[in-house]
Amino acid sequence: MKTGNKKLISVCLELTDKCKVGCPYCLLEEKTEEISQKRILDIIQVLETYGVSRFTVGGGEPLDIPYVYEIGKFIRTHGHKVLLRTSACNPMDSQIIKESFDLVDISIDSHKKEILKVCKPHIDSDVVFENIRKFSENKVTFRCNILITKFNYDDVLSTIIWLKENGVQDIRIQKLVPRGRAKEIFEDINISDDAYNVILNKVFNKCKELNMSVEEVKSVSSKTLCIIKPNGEVYVGTPTGILKIGNVFSANILDKASEIVYSNQKKIYGVGGYDGLKSN
């Protein structure tokens, strides 16, 4: 352990910047980078020496990386917790998912194909819906995320009802932030704080009525996080303003990241407050 009491408990590993889904409000800039399996395994082993025990695997779209399941299994066999963040755009085998990840976050902004086509222009909605149904049937631990914009504002409650009908028990709600491609259209598709608070209150009431677990993802806008990019660059900050501080293999960079994260929050960013992913 190289950071004393200031452990870097949780890190987000972005295996790729590529994604075929095409969300117009994606937080990432469009790039074509991805990381090799050997390099990501080397990075994981470095992170272990800094006390990291919770990993989020994302991107881009991590399902487009052929070795994503091997990465999940590698992390779990080392005794750590790992979350997969995905748009569920590719067919997934429930058993392999359960062997590879402790929790899966699925981004689904609507259950209506015509709205989902606007939110995620290149996605096959039937594939997404089938993944959700199979996960529910096979007791995969997963939750669904809904990003609220003008595209889906009027549809959120009916989407929650549809999710419940298809076996989903846990959802997360979040508001758009002006970063990545979202900066260009933020004013056009963002809803006001008042409108967001109104729908948020309705969401919490509906979930209480349906006996569903719901969480507002405040970490998206307020928590300090540590992200490892496909090229090994380390970013620390919040989604509205992250700062590159160096490369993961450079001397003292992870010490610096640990200090920043530790100083800015008591609850380290990573897997939300999901009890099943608390580290030992």
Uncertain segments are 1-5, 265-280
Query: What share of the residues does DSSP label as strand, in percent?
Result: 15-25%
Indicate the overall shape.
globular
- H and E order: EHEHEHEHHEHEHHEEEEH
Largest sheet: 10 strands, mixed
DSSP strand tally: 10
- Average pLDDT number: 84
- Overall structural class, as computed from helix and strand content, comes to alpha/beta
Q: In whole angstroms, how far apart are the ends?
A: 16 Å
Q: C-alpha Rg, in Å?
A: 18 Å
Total helices: the number is: 9
- Please bin the fraction of helical residues: 25-40%
Adjacency order of strands in the biggest sheet: 7-6-5-4-3-2-1-8-9-10
Task: Give a description of the structure.
This protein is α/β, with parallel strands linked by helices and 280 residues long. It contains nine helices and ten strands. It has helices at residues 37-48, 68-77, 94-100, 113-119, 125-137, 156-165, 182-189, 193-210, 253-264, and strands spanning 10-14, 54-58, 81-86, 103-107, 142-148, 170-175, 213-216, 225-228, 233-238, 241-247. Strands 7-6-5-4-3-2-1-8-9-10 form a ten-stranded mixed sheet, with helices on one face. Helix 2 (68-77) packs across helix 3. The radius of gyration is 18 Å and the shape is globular.
